[in-house]
């Protein structure tokens, strides 16, 4: 991590508001170009706050008909399952904003994982502008786990960082649960890649990556190095407390 890429905020909401401002800026830029805006969201508690904030406080500041929503990853569960990233996004954002249904591009977690990884890869290739035959999202929002994983790329599956496919099947090392995930290569082609990280539970991982320690090399999140712009880290005080 480039130390200059990390921005600290007092509270999770402050970090979320900074990210919302970025989303608004990016969406307005694409709108002026008369182009759709392609965003890949992650799941988790902090994105839930992001979705709630977008729906409640910034509803009228985004031209939702030009926003196309995708997912960085999702668990291989039905869309109404409590662990579905799509389901969480639907409950806290999609059900509250005027986004056309055809602009919502979910991962079908109920399908066969390998088949779905291939289908979603083809969907991204057909929906998003390509660079060297790789989709180039306008914005990819990432989080991290306390084991240093990001998306559904876990420390025991580092090969997914360089995998040739657009999407792949990740497997949670403890539960064995399968997930569909963007590969590291796809993530690194994003125009803007932002980590949104809050809470003291992530502070050790953030510090290791910030200080570029040997341990950090075992964290998938430390290897996300976008081609166009450096990845940015928006973290709250709790997540940055060990830096």
Q: Could you name the key traits of this structure?
A:
243 residues; alpha/beta; three-stranded antiparallel β-sheet; globular
Give a written overview of the molecule.
This protein is of the alpha/beta class. It has one domain: 3-Layer(aba) Sandwich (Rossmann fold), CATH 3.40.50.1360. It contains six helices and eleven strands. The protein has helices at 12-32, 45-57, 85-92, 113-127, 184-188, 203-210; strands spanning 6-9, 37-41, 67-71, 73-75, 130-131, 134-135, 139-142, 167-171, 178-182, 193-197, 232-236. A six-stranded parallel beta sheet has the order 1-11-10-7-2-3, covered by helices on one side. Strands 4-9-8 form a three-stranded antiparallel beta sheet. It is globular, with a radius of gyration of 17 Å. It starts with 5 loop residues before the first strand and ends in a 7-residue tail after the last strand. The model has no long low-confidence stretch (mean pLDDT 96).
